[in-house]
Specification:
GO terms for molecular function: peptide-methionine (R)-S-oxide reductase activity. This is peptide-methionine (R)-S-oxide reductase. The protein is mostly beta strands. The chain has a single domain, classed as Peptide methionine sulfoxide reductase (Metal Binding Protein, Guanine Nucleotide Exchange Factor, Chain A), CATH 2.170.150.20. The protein is about 10% helix and about 30% strand. The strands form two sheets. The chain has a six-stranded antiparallel beta sheet with strand order 3-4-8-7-6-5, with no helix packed on it. It has a three-stranded antiparallel beta sheet with strand order 2-1-9, with no helix packed on it.
Length: about 140
């Protein structure tokens, strides 16, 4: 399993990332920003398919792990593959959280929370910014 300390398999300079991503995407994916709740493209999506990293196109989540959390962001109870994401401690903003990064390019996706009582197999909520994802509908 990779960690945020290991180099990302997909790497670009900051200038290249800025060329590849819109300013809003860059702010979230490369600067660990957060989109406003309830405005994201995939917050309420129920389409069957796969969710890929918007920065590098790596498969991150599938619709079978997505659930309605009513928190304002897309929520998943597990990644599509355990090696698809990296988890790291985040103590910014005076909080203790666990940040979720794409294992392929180390872009910020959101945070994961545990023990909130959702009726899911893992009791985890991967709270992911819609702008960090690109949904590919199943054929």
């Amino acid at each position: 399993m990779s960690s945020a300390a290991d180099p990302a398999p997909v790497q670009f300079t900051e200038a290249q990332w800025r060329e590849r991503l819109s300013p809003e995407e860059y702010a979230v994916l490369r600067e660990a920003g957060t989109e406003r709740p309830f405005v994201g493209e995939y917050t309420d999506t129920t389409t069957v398919g796969e969710y890929h990293c918007r920065a590098c196109d790596a498969l991150l989540f599938t619709s079978t792990e997505k659930f309605e959390s009513h928190c304002g962001w897309p929520s998943f109870f597990d990644p599509a593959d355990s090696d698809a994401v990296i988890l790291r401690e985040d103590s910014t903003l005076g909080m203790r959280r666990v940040e979720v990064l794409c294992a392929n390019c180390h872009s910020h996706l959101g945070h994961v929370f545990e023990g909130e009582g959702y009726p899911t197999p893992t009791d985890q909520r991967y709270c992911i910014n819609s702008i960090s994802l690109r949904m590919v509908p199943q054929d």
